[in-house]
Description:
By secondary structure, the protein is mostly helical. It has helices spanning about 5-20, 25-40, 45-50, 55-70, 75-85, 95-105, 110-130, 135-145, 155-165, 175-195, 210, 220-240, 245-260, 260-270, 275-290, 295-305, 310-325, 330-345, 350-360, 370-380, 385-410.
Amino acid sequence: xxxxxxxxxxxxxxxxxxxxxxxxxxxxxxxxxxxxxxxxxxxxxxxxxxxxxxxxxxxxxxxxxxxxxxxxxxxxxxxxxxxxxxxxxxxxxxxxxxxxxxxxxxxxxxxxxxxxxxxxxxxxxxxxxxxxxxxxxxxxxxxxxxxxxxxxxxxxxxxxxxxxxxxxxxxxxxxxxxxxxxxxxxxxxxxxxxxxxxxxxxxxxxxxxxxxxxxxxxxxxxxxxxxxxxxxxxxxxxxxxxxxxxxxxxxxxxxxxxxxxxxxxxxxxxxxxxxxxxxxxxxxxxxxxxxxxxxxxxxxxxxxxxxxxxxxxxxxxxxxxxxxxxxxxxxxxxxxxxxxxxxxxxxxxxxxxxxxxxxxxxxxxxxxxxxxxxxxxxxxxxxxxxxxxxxxxxxxxxxxxxxxxxxxxxxxxxxxx
Length: 417
């Protein structure tokens, strides 16, 4: 058996053990990274640790730390009250407002994880307060971010259009943007219905915010004012100055803790350490797979089958499966060049294929193993985190199974040369 197949088999075993035993999948993945890396691939410890997602670790810790402070001093309560008053008690509008905000942020240039890092903690606070399904709210935030993520001036759009231009393939920036927007909007609408969105209040209620929390203190205290300033500073730093969301968030959280140490002490204990362990462990093992060439091995096996239409479908599935555990940008950068040989033959329309690959590789980012899904999982207050993790994993699995086939059927098959 080849090293690549062994590494895939070990990944399957990790999933089986994690789902049948009460063992953190991240801890299992670290053990698998050590075993496969050392015994199969011959990597040393430094080589294995090269796959550790340090940037994501800081994002998860920094964002959850900052918003734990906001919860500790009542800022999130104040924001919830203000927003409910703004929509005049129409709770059903809140998920769509979060969808729109995330979409606008990515469309004007924010990377998807940065937009989710900004919006998800507040959105999940709304969900907890007004008994909205956390899966519904998390999905709306992620799909909103991906819906706007391929505008011509967005990060994803610029990357894909740049690859298309470099490979001298036909491209259509508007078609790419609309494909992602429409698919994510349709998915959001389905999730809204399935997860109880139609049962949420859609008409004015008598002071909904006060009914939900009549004893809440909605005053603006110095700590809350300072926290609101730091949240605005986080948005400006990420969008206007392209600073790292994680490093910025943890710096702002530390600054608040200096002035209100009691809040800071409580907030540190609310950082979602089990989620951090889970995500970082899984992605470290995925990094070992990448270094071993397992991902390239799978992609080459598909492109060598000699049937362009079937290869196109399998590439969409590979993009979805791998992106559920890794960087969507990295996957798109690898998959589109893999598709170049049969796209150059003219048997399959390049515009439709590129759109299908791009959507397949990003719509699955609600998976708890992706950056966006991890942020949603980490941001959810007052939930059974194990149950929410399973919900996100099942939902991500549904996206992996359904979306690639759907976009292949609607975007690739009609454009056969």
